[in-house]
Specification:
Elements (H helix, E strand, L loop, with lengths): L2 E6 L2 E8 L1 E10 L4 E5 L11 E2 L1 E4 L8 E4 L16 E4 L17 E4 L6 E6 L4 E5 L3 E8 L3 E8 L10 E4 L2 E5 L4 E4 L4 E3 L5 H5 L11 E5 L4 E6 L9 E6 L4 E6 L6 E5 L8 E4 L4 E3 L18 E4 L3 E2 L7 E7 L2 E2 L6 H4 L11 E9 L17 E5 L17 E3 L1 E8 L7 E2 L3 E6 L5
Antiparallel strand pairs: 1-2, 2-3, 3-4, 4-5, 6-7, 7-8, 8-9, 10-11, 11-12, 12-13, 14-15, 15-16, 16-17, 18-19, 19-20, 20-21, 22-23, 23-24, 25-32, 26-32, 27-31, 27-34, 28-33, 29-30, 29-32
Length: 428
């Protein structure tokens, strides 16, 4: 059983292999997300002529095709598309949607919501999202074939593609929060960057939002449009093992329009608006349409950490950075005439201080010295962990640390930095 999806502008070609290859052609309707469906071979009976989504029921080994938000049976009735109706084909003939005593074709209707937005197949069930509810469609066999149960009547989905599943857990972006479902219950994700995301995204472009999985690093990515943008220009990432969030802008040719996790292929692949498909997590440099070896700007900034419970100033005098450069200068980065040169890898280790919670940050001390020190590898021939101390004198009630690099062929991992600080009074 093979399924191929190819998107070309507003047309979606769905190829389904069942004995031989047939093609169903969908033409989308932007206002309703519905598509017109024509079936081949001509022997198909009562195939829905208009649907929101078509998918294979993947929670069983049958060849049942699900039609979500579709025209009802019988077609001769001329009824309009029912945006909450679920129909399925006969278990022995995926082109027969006629309910009868001799077929297993049938239908169910979602009870909560005004339209089906998305169906997501998992290894246990098919999840059915409306604009206000989540429902579980499970194959039970027998006379009923499927059972439909409401999981939640108080959940939202930002866009039809803002949901992804990994390892039996489904993650999605709602209107004002992120959710996960583990097969038994829904949980709201504690998102530390929710203000950055939900106060600054363009709801008019929600159909463009999409989610992707990077299972090698236990990450769920969401790409979305910020306020004022009509194209994807922001991303937010959740590491579901470490339970941390990070976000950024889709600059430097990082505009992504589609995403496929590694599996059959060795790496994540993603499409860009420049017309190219990119391999992710390969080497240490940034690729574009002309070269694979551009320098990559990378940084991480901690939250502002209060010192002495925020009541007193502290004086920071030195830091042991704990930076590892083991994977710098890999073969992927240096091979061929377009490869980058072998470098002594470095990062810039900065301190960002605050005197008061609402005050502006500052990156220079009382003497006007910049609170940044370059951290380098022990040697350029043997790349191993940095062991020197960085002397950065900073004074404040709270401080944040930033580590950044912007050269070719540099890879680094952050351990547990240690800082030498001492109390330094209450007056600033």
């Amino acid at each position: 059983r093979l399924i191929y999806f190819t998107r070309y502008q507003d047309d979606l070609l769905f190829n389904y292999r069942y004995g031989s290859i047939y093609r169903w052609v969908f033409q989308s309707s932007p206002s309703t997300r519905a598509v017109l469906l024509s079936a081949s071979p001509s022997s198909g009976t009562e195939v829905p002529t208009e649907v929101t989504q078509v998918l294979i029921a993947q929670d069983n080994q049958s060849n049942i095709i699900l039609a979500l938000g579709c025209t009802p049976y019988p077609a001769s009735g001329g009824a309009d598309r029912d945006p909450l109706l679920i129909r399925w084909s006969d278990i022995t003939n995926p082109f027969n949607f006629t309910p009868s005593d001799t077929t297993t074709a049938g239908s169910l209707t979602v009870q909560n919501g005004s339209q089906i937005i998305k169906g997501v197949p998992t290894n246990r069930e098919t999840l059915i999202f409306t604009e206000s509810s989540l429902n579980s469609l499970k194959f039970v066999g027998g006379f009923d074939v499927f059972r439909l149960e409401e999981v939640s009547s108080n959940t939202t989905l930002a866009g039809p593609n803002a949901v992804a599943s990994v390892d039996g857990v489904t993650f999605w972006m709602g209107i004002n929060k992120f959710y996960m479902y583990n097969g038994s219950q829904i949980s709201t994700l504690d998102c530390t960057v929710s203000e950055e995301v939900f106060k600054n995204y363009n709801t008019d472009q929600a159909d463009q939002f999409f989610a992707g999985i990077n299972s090698e690093y236990h990450e769920v990515w969401w790409f979305y449009c910020a306020v004022g943008s009509t194209t994807i220009n922001r991303y937010v990432v959740y590491n579901y093992v470490e339970k941390v969030w990070y976000y950024g802008d889709c600059d430097d040719n990082f505009d992504r329009t589609a995403w496929s996790d590694a599996g059959v292929r060795p790496t994540v692949q993603a499409a860009s608006d420049d017309g190219y498909i990119y391999d992710h997590e390969v080497g240490n440099n940034a690729a574009n349409s002309t070269t694979d070896h551009n320098a990559m700007s990378a940084f991480i900034t901690s939250a502002s950490v209060p010192m002495e419970e925020g009541g007193k100033f502290v004086l920071l005098q030195k830091i042991i950075p704990d930076i590892d450069f083991t994977h710098s200068n890999t073969t992927t980065d240096t091979q061929g005439s377009t490869g980058g040169e072998v470098v002594t890898p470095t990062v810039d280790f900065s301190v960002i201080a605050k005197k008061n919670p609402g005050a502006a940050t500052y990156t220079t001390n009382e003497s006007g010295e910049t609170l940044t020190d370059a951290v380098t590898a022990v040697s350029s021939s043997t790349i191993d962990q940095f062991t020197q101390q960085a002397y950065l004198r900073a004074r404040g009630r709270s401080m944040a640390i930033k580590i950044a690099s912007s050269a070719k062929n540099v890879a680094w991992e952050l351990g547990v930095p240690r800082a030498e600080v001492r109390p330094d009074g209450r007056r600033g």
